[in-house]
User: What shape does this take?
Amino acid sequence: MSDRKIWVVWGGVFTDTNFTALEPGTEELHGPYHDEATANRAWQDHMRRKVDIATHRLFVMLAQPTKVA
Assistant: This one.
């Protein structure tokens, strides 16, 4: 398997400020990005658009492959 890393930006509008459950239909997934710096720039761009929504959060995440038996 390749040692390449894939980054994504994931999140949406959460039901409250505990940020544990997303409101249905607000999920966002952006990417994949081949480096963390590009993912961070995308994160910043997408967060700027909804800065006025207090429960909107996006996270930069490293996508990990899963083992298939």
Notes: The two ends are 15 Å apart (CA to CA). The CA atoms of residues 7 and 36 lie 6 Å apart.
